[in-house]
């Protein structure tokens, strides 16, 4: 059993966004009844989320590490941690690596550096991505057969796309609107970074922000590892410590982040975050008569409420106390959208240890990390997170630079097609691994993977039945196509997940 996340509603802020239909499927959000109770102002001391649904501790068996996680958008909540053996493999990997690549021997540490180190001729010879000033060959990131690598082709294909840097894309439009808010309110004090490489060290992603050695977010089940020391960042907090060490006191970092996760309309394995950090010096809080932490927490909430008003005008939102390893106290902001509360950001007062390590013994700071897709879904009425990756002109043409409030008009309503798959699981089975297999076959044609039945028989064998919803955001799928996908999924599930189909 993994840990609890004791989150308590602390504050409510007015007005409702009406007239939306439900689309958020996060099973861990509170029931509408609880939400309504909270809105009526009843004192609340409930854990906001249930303990994770199937957080069984899996032994690290032979060369496998597996952790069963529930559908949750926040890797960093859990106080509770499970033992890990990081240098072991997951049961499936990615596409074949080509030994002929001139860069296949490029070490991950050199990938992480800002490199101009590749010979120009060699760089020209291969199809290289340039990400954050680093040239990357596929073989550097995707290595089938390497037990320390779990990056699939589908994830590699997203590297370097940097949707947040396209001014006509909803994410770029939103990023620019947030920049406007900070520029306007802090007279340009915040330095902006939106081209830092998503390939970071385990140290940057976890150690530098005090994520404990045995924290669930470090597992191969949750994070994409390039090798045992290098990951695709799973949050923009990976850059906090470096930037503080470089002397920045006010900064915003926007970037693509990567997580192995479940499949539904608000979760995607690649999404975008914006990190904000503000450091205060003693004169700033001394004058207020408040202690440093209270001052920073007050300023943080004020800044983010102001941002929400800047983006949404009047919107119903609330603060929820939570836990992150890198902040204390920690909060999440939720926005009421389409009849549900949706978590849009995490934040808090930076742990003193992080500041101390950057040579700031006498300062206090706040930090936040917001999910750009989640905010953009509310702002533009975008019902499915897959749409952000659409290149269909009927989607892309609806958005243009600086147009924040435009509501997306769905151009199609294709019916979903549901297919069930049942199997006896083994004790190394995890839902994230299943989702990765399904995405590997069906790509963005899969809309949702949902556990619909779960039982254990007298012999102690556990059966799961998952319902896979296939639906394209762009076209009708034929029966033949779906049947073919489903057969391929069944085959891959059987071959890669060590389960017995029923
Ligand atoms: C973090 O990632 C923390 N680094 C945020 C933070 C920064 C806290 C600085 C304190 C100080 P979390 O895992 O909750 O926290 O993710 C932050 C936001 O990213 C979420 O609120 C949500 O809006 C978004 N998000 C998380 N997972 C997904 C996903 N799979 N798909 C889309 N958006 C997601
Ligand atoms: Mg969260």
TrEMBL record:
This is phenylalanine--tRNA ligase. It is found in: Mitochondrion matrix. Residues 412-502 form the FDX-ACB domain. The keyword Nucleotide-binding applies. It catalyses: tRNA(Phe) + L-phenylalanine + ATP = L-phenylalanyl-tRNA(Phe) + AMP + diphosphate + H(+). Its main location: mitochondrion. Belongs to the class-II aminoacyl-tRNA synthetase family. PANTHER family: PHENYLALANINE--TRNA LIGASE, MITOCHONDRIAL, PHENYLALANYL-TRNA SYNTHETASE. PROSITE patterns: AA_TRNA_LIGASE_II, FDX_ACB. One of its GO terms (biological process) is phenylalanyl-tRNA aminoacylation. Is responsible for the charging of tRNA(Phe) with phenylalanine in mitochondrial translation. InterPro entries: aa-tRNA-synth_II, aa-tRNA-synth_II/BPL/LPL, Fdx_antiC-bd, Fdx_antiC-bd_sf, Phenylalanyl-tRNA_Synthase. Residues 255-410 form the Aminoacyl-transfer RNA synthetases class-II family profile domain. It comes from Colocasia esculenta (Wild taro). Its EC number is 6.1.1.20. One of its GO terms (molecular function) is phenylalanine-tRNA ligase activity. Gene3D superfamilies: Bira Bifunctional Protein, Domain 2 (3.30.930.10), Ferrodoxin-fold anticodon-binding domain (3.30.70.380). It holds the Pfam family FDX-ACB. Keywords: Aminoacyl-tRNA synthetase, ATP-binding, Ligase, Mitochondrion, Nucleotide-binding, Protein biosynthesis, Transit peptide. One of its GO terms (cellular component) is mitochondrial matrix. SMART domains: FDX-ACB. It comes from the Eukaryota.
């Amino acid at each position: 059993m993994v840990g609890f996340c004791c989150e308590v509603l602390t504050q409510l802020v007015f007005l409702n966004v009406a007239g939306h239909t439900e689309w958020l499927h996060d099973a861990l959000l509170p029931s509408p009844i609880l939400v309504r109770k909270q809105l009526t102002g009843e004192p609340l001391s409930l854990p906001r989320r249930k303990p994770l649904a199937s957080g069984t501790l899996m032994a690290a068996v032979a060369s496998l590490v597996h952790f069963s996680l529930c559908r949750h958008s926040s890797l960093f909540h859990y106080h509770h941690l499970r033992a890990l053996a990081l240098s072991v493999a997951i049961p499936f990997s990615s596409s074949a690596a080509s030994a002929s690549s001139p860069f296949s021997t490029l070490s991950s540490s050199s990938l992480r550096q800002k490199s101009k180190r590749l010979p120009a001729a060699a760089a020209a010879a291969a199809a290289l991505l340039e990400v954050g000033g680093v040239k990357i060959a596929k073989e550097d990131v995707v290595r089938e057969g390497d037990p320390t690598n779990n990056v699939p082709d589908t994830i590699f294909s997203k590297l370097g796309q940097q949707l947040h840097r396209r001014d006509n894309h909803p994410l770029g439009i939103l990023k620019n609107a947030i920049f406007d808010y900070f520029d306007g309110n802090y007279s340009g004090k915040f330095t902006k970074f939106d081209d830092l490489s998503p390939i970071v060290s385990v140290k940057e992603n976890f150690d530098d922000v005090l994520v404990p050695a045995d924290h669930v977010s470090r597992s191969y089940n949750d994070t994409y590892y390039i090798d045992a020391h290098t990951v695709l960042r799973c949050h923009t907090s990976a850059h906090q410590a470096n930037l503080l060490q470089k002397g920045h006191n006010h900064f915003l970092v926007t970037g693509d982040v990567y997580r192995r996760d479940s499949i539904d309309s608000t979760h995607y394995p690649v999404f975008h975050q914006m990190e904000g950090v503000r450091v205060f010096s003693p004169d700033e809080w001394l004058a207020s008569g408040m202690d440093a932490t209270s001052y920073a927490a007050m300023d943080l909430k004020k800044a983010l409420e102001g941002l929400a008003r800047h983006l949404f005008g009047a919107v119903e939102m609330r603060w929820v106390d939570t836990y992150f390893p890198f902040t204390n106290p920690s909060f999440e902001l939720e926005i009421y959208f389409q009849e549900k509360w949706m978590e849009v950001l995490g934040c808090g007062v930076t742990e003193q240890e992080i500041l101390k390590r950057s040579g700031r013994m006498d300062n206090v700071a706040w930090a936040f990390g917001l999910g750009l897709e989640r905010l953009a879904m509310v702002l533009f009425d975008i019902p499915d997170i897959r749409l952000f990756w659409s290149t269909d002109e009927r989607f892309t043409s609806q958005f243009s630079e600086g147009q924040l409030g435009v509501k997306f008009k769905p151009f199609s309503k294709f019916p979903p097609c549901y297919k069930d798959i049942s199997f006896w699981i083994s004790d190394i089975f995890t839902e994230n691994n299943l989702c990765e297999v399904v995405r590997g076959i069906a790509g963005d044609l899969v809309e949702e993977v949902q556990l619909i039945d779960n039982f254990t028989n007298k012999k102690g064998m556990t059966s799961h039945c998952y319902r896979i919803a296939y639906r394209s955001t762009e076209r009708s799928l034929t029966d033949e196509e779906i049947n073919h996908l489903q057969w391929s999924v069944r085959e891959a599930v059987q071959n890669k997940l060590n389960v017995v189909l029923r």
